[in-house]
Design a protein that fits this description.
The structure holds two protein chains of two kinds. In chain A, β6 (173-179), α6 (199-209) and β7 form a beta-alpha-beta unit. By secondary structure, chain A is an alpha/beta fold. Chain A has helices at residues 11-22, 34-48, 64-74, 98-123, 147-166, 199-209, 223-232, 235-238, and strands spanning 2-6, 26-31, 52-56, 80-83, 130-136, 173-179, 215-219. In chain B, 26% of the residues lie in helices and 25% in strands. Classes of the chains: A alpha/beta, B alpha+beta.
Chain lengths: 243, 439
């Protein structure tokens, strides 16, 4: 299998790269951090003998068509496309700096849509193809914190549902994960009300689910209950929550 | 974020700023005016990786193997790679790191900063002998590559430099063919401390690894009796290659229940039980290499049984010319103070002392005592006899060692301090250890 992982330099993307390399996949990694990609690539080659290629590219300014050409030329057509890239910011509440607003919107939503869109013609009829998107439970309801991040992730979820609908009857599987807390730099140092999942565990689950007609799923599953409760909360109560 | 850290001996606990980068740019763009200190697994006996005045920079996410050349016997790793990870990778390939301290959770960055030793120092020397090159980050100098042939001064200052020259990012290490996948172990009895010193000194060259366990929990006529654990590499089946899961050590965890079980009355019983457990198998027997290399695995409770106040590990290197007279002097002192040691070991050393490196020729003598006023009085008197015998105290082990004693014992203390200040005049890298030692 050939897997293209977008957002692979740390956290869940790095864990996915390791899980897939261990399983014998060929991997193409994309992220903005060239030095980290070089280190991950070297590690996977040394430990698993994996074929790993990478390109450093900032999602904020990436030309998806150029990226596709680069991937096809050096790596070939991927079977799996995993859009893991994401960025959040403590200042994402109320009026934010315009550059930050743009970055949050592009990395968490628009770049994902454009990259999937660029690769879709090759993936749609791939017999073992999977398109995987990573969302967040932060998108369950509009909140004062992480407002643009949450909105962008909800947009991405909408797009992935639309994609799944578009691909009905075709072999390509579309999966979307609404992630709860992960033990990554995004949650580092925060006092979390619920336990955080190890990114390696999340990566194992995502890898094991490839090929399944999963649609959207919570990871870990029990976040489904929490999100349902939050969604049912009437506005007079919800507005009092400091979340 | 604010985090509470404790040294492995739990002698020192502080609330410090902590960050845990997972990308290189998060290290390389650290503010140049802030004090910091690198932190690996946080398993140093002393507070070498934290201070109230500095941000501890956790390196555990930098745990990748960057290059490996089997023919050249060379491996390049990030500083957060642990000995356990390397064991898992190298052992099936018939290779090993010839110098390894006693727990698989220890990181390579920590091994370099502490210039650590294993149970075969008399054969393989200290960790610096394995280091070919490393990359070091310092906000005022950027990223520096240092090796014995390039930036040799920084190389020399950083190996055993207690993490005070910067953040070790990655290192190239020499790996050697593994002579066997298991150890043929035997126990040779020793009558007392004098006998232990004599035998360890004379037998070291005959074995691949060796250390002596002595019972100093009772201070009567046979105080110091015990056994020398000798090990020779032998080949075993493939199953013996692999490591095994282990309970991570976490001295900083405040959630852990630490009943203080080590008390004067109980220590002798614990020592008797330990001696029985370790020597019940008579005659030579084979032990998996992992178990021999990392004897602390499975005995994590030991560190907790001293309670929340912890203990002090006092480790001294007694020069060859003093090993005949030292045991009687130290026994006299132990009896005078009446303080039992929860653990006492003797190892052979060969090498040359330099800067603050715990290295030289002679015998390594270690005791663990409860952290309380009576024990500290004993250790204060031991500082005096150590200085008299020309011994050096391991600064990476003893949490109460003062700057004055370190200066008295290490002839190059002043040179180390001067070179450190010359490389880093603003002294950006600081820890409780460096502050206590006046560095």
């Amino acid at each position: 299998m050939k897997s293209l992982i977008i957002g692979a330099s740390a956290g869940l993307g790095r864990s996915l790269a390791e899980v897939m390399a261990r399983a014998g996949d060929e991997i193409f990694l994309v992220s903005s951090d060239a030095e980290d990609l070089a280190a991950i690539s070297a590690d996977l080659k040394v430990r698993f003998g994996a074929k790993v290629l990478y390109v450093a590219s900032d999602m904020n300014g990436e030309d998806p068509v150029a990226l596709r050409q680069k991937v096809l030329k050096t790596f070939g057509a991927p079977d799996n496309l995993l859009y893991v890239a994401g960025v959040s910011d403590h200042d994402d509440s109320g009026p934010v700096d315009d550059a930050l607003a743009l970055r949050l919107g592009v990395v968490n939503f628009l770049a994902g849509v454009r990259i999937v869109n660029a690769f879709l013609p090759g993936l749609a009829d791939g017999p073992n193809a999977n398109i995987v998107g990573i969302g967040s439970v932060a998108a369950c309801r509009g909140r004062r914190n992480n407002s643009i991040y949450g909105a962008a992730k909800r947009g991405l979820e909408y797009y992935f549902e639309a994609l799944r609908h578009y691909l009905v009857g075709r072999p390509c599987r579309v999966q979307f994960y609404r992630l709860g807390y992960l033990r990554t730099s995004m949650t580092f140092g925060q006092k979390l009300p619920f336990p955080a999942l190890d990114p390696n565990t999340a990566a194992e689950i995502i890898h094991a689910n490839l090929g399944r007609d999963l649609g959207a799923a919570y990871l870990p599953w029990w976040w489904g209950g929490i999100v349902t409760l939050l969604r049912m909360l009437p506005w007079p109560l919800f507005k009092r929550l400091n979340i | 974020m604010k985090t509470s850290f404790s040294s492995l001996d739990r002698h020192t606990t502080r609330t410090c700023e902590y960050s845990e980068p997972d990308r290189y740019r998060q290290i390389f763009t650290r503010p140049s005016d802030a004090s910091m200190i690198a932190r690996g697994s946080g398993l140093s006996y002393v507070a070498a990786s934290f201070s109230e005045r500095a941000t501890s920079v956790g390196m555990k996410r930098f745990n990748r193997i960057l290059a490996f050349d089997r023919d050249e016997g060379r491996i390049e790793v990030e500083a957060g790679v642990t000995l356990g990870q390397l064991y898992e990778f190298l052992t099936p390939l018939g290779l090993h790191l010839p110098v390894q301290p006693g727990h698989p959770q220890i990181t390579i960055g920590g091994c370099i900063a502490g210039n650590v030793h294993g149970k075969n120092q008399f054969k393989e020397g200290v960790f610096k002998s394995l280091v070919r090159e490393f990359r070091l980050f310092h906000p005022d100098h950027g990223v520096i590559s240092a090796s014995p042939g390039s930036n040799a001064d920084i190389f020399d200052l950083t190996c055993g430099g207690l993490g005070l020259t910067g953040i070790i990012v990655s290192a190239q290490l020499s790996v050697a063919p593994l002579p066997g996948t298991a150890m043929r172990v035997d126990h040779l009895p020793v009558e007392d401390l004098d006998d232990a010193f004599r035998k360890v000194n004379s037998l070291a060259s005959e074995y691949d690894m060796m250390y002596c366990w002595c019972d100093l929990s009772v201070l009567g006529r046979r105080a110091g009796s015990g056994y020398i654990v000798t090990g020779r590499f032998v080949s075993e089946d493939a199953a013996a290659h692999s490591g095994r899961p282990f309970k991570p050590l976490d001295p900083s965890s405040s959630a852990k229940f630490r009943p203080r079980l080590f008390a004067n009355a109980l220590i002798p019983w614990v020592n008797r039980a330990y001696r029985y457990r370790e020597t019940r198998q008579s005659g030579p027997h084979t032990v998996p290499l992992f178990d021999f290399l990392f004897p602390a695995v499975g005995k994590e409770f030991y560190f907790d049984w001293f309670g929340n106040n912890g203990f002090v590990e006092h480790q001294v290197l007694i020069p060859t010319n003093a090993i005949e007279d030292y045991p009687s002097a130290v026994m006299k002192l132990l009896r005078h103070h009446g303080q039992p040691a929860a653990l006492a070991t003797v190892k052979a050393f060969r090498g040359n002392q330099h800067l603050l490196h715990y290295d030289g020729a002679g015998l390594n003598f270690t005791i663990d005592v409860i952290n309380r006023a009576e024990s500290r009085d004993l250790l204060k008197d031991m500082d005096d006899i150590n200085s008299r015998f020309g011994a050096i105290t391991n600064v990476m082990k003893d949490s109460r060692l003062s700057a004055a004693v370190a200066e008295r014992q290490y002839s190059e203390y002043g040179e180390f301090r001067e070179r450190l200040h010359s490389f880093d005049p603003k002294r950006r890298f600081t820890s409780c250890l460096s502050e206590r030692l006046g560095l």
